[in-house]
Structures are given as C-alpha cells and as structure tokens.
Structure of alpha-1,2-Mannosidase:
Amino acid sequence: MLFRLLVPLGLLCALLPLHHGAPGPDGTAPDPAHYRERVKAMFYHAYDSYLENAFPYDELRPLTCDGHDTWGSFSLTLIDALDTLLILGNVSEFQRVVEVLQDNVDFDIDVNASVFETNIRVVGGLLSAHLLSKKAGVEVEAGWPCSGPLLRMAEEAARKLLP
C-alpha cells in the first residue's frame, strides 16, 4: 500500500515545478529531462527495493524492510509495476516480469481477498499491461488484443471475484 501511495506522491513532487514553470534546481528554466530522470530514479528505487526485500509478497513494509501479503498474495506490487515498466521503456524487464508472474502467481487459492483492490490493481494492472504490450514492441499472440498471457491472467483473476 505504501508503494502505491509513495510513487504517485513522488511523481507529483518531482513534476510540480515543471508544471508551474518554476525554476529548476539551479534557478534556470525547468528541464524536462531532469525531472524525467528523477521520476525514473524514484520508481526504480521503490521497484528494486520491493524485488530485493519483499517479492513474492504483495507489498514492501518500508520500516522493517520485509514483505507481507495484504490483499490476496498475488505479488500486487509487481503487477502494479508492469505498465510503468513499459511506459519507462524497459521492455526486457517487462518481459521478464510477465514470465515470473506466469510462473508464480496462482489465483486458485483460498484467501480473503479484497474485491476492490484485486479488481483495480490485479485485473486493471494486467489489462493495462496487456494493452500496452504491443505498443512497446513486445511480440504478441495471433488474435491480439483478444488473446495473450496477461489477458488470460486478468480473466482468471476476475472470474475468481465473481462468486
């Protein structure tokens, strides 16, 4: 949960001076490349910390630097990060994570999962990554956008929410 809150807050703080035309760090006009790199650095700090200290759990607890399952034991943070990896242009890491998720995430488990969180973070995260994958140059299956591994995972998760 903290990852989900800190990343957007960090992005907002990093981009706010650019949006308002405020001077950059050295007093000159804002430099979009500078802010873009700050945002990427913040994302990778959070992402790498999650992978190092919390995967395969849902989230990283920043004070104890360990992971815990909060909403169903689906590696939520990793699913949340999928579309961001593509937006940042990291196609190779995106492809690696898709394989990791396919090998490690099982929606056929008996857990008390939040319907809301699972819907927006798991189903939504998988759907957005599925739809972005072709634009990112990822090789897609025949029949895309009506087929693909991420779409099948999203459908499986959504079907589990129906009862």
